[in-house]
Design brief:
This protein is mostly beta strands. The protein is about 15% helix and about 50% strand. The protein has one helix and seven strands; from the N terminus they run E-E-E-E-E-E-H-E. The chain has a seven-stranded antiparallel beta sheet with strand order 6-5-4-3-2-1-7, covered by helices on one side. The radius of gyration is 14 Å and the shape is globular. The protein starts with 6 loop residues before the first strand and ends with a strand.
Length: about 120
Amino acid sequence: MQNRPVIKTAIPKRRYQIGAFDVALLGEIESGDARSYRYILAFVQTGQAQPSFYVCVEQDAFVGTGRKTYGLRVINEVMSEVVDTGSQWGDLDRFAEQGIKLGLQALGLQQERIVRLM
């Protein structure tokens, strides 16, 4: 995965179990790449070492009209694309809800139960 976020340090904010995926929502991220992340939601299939799907909130890359605007980026093996922008993605709860929805759709997990572990 060529556009995988490079994470030097991060603080886990939430953890979930969704089917065969462990999902971590990270904040306070120190990035080792050119992007500045506010949050990253990483989906790791059980038994795998690396996430196969990410939903990220990029900060400072998108300038709005007087308000902080964030980019919502989806990253997997075949794409890295900003799917939405807006100030709402700076909110942890709103991002978590939307990020999980995107992951469920992309990974075909709509029928799986979401268990919040932390």
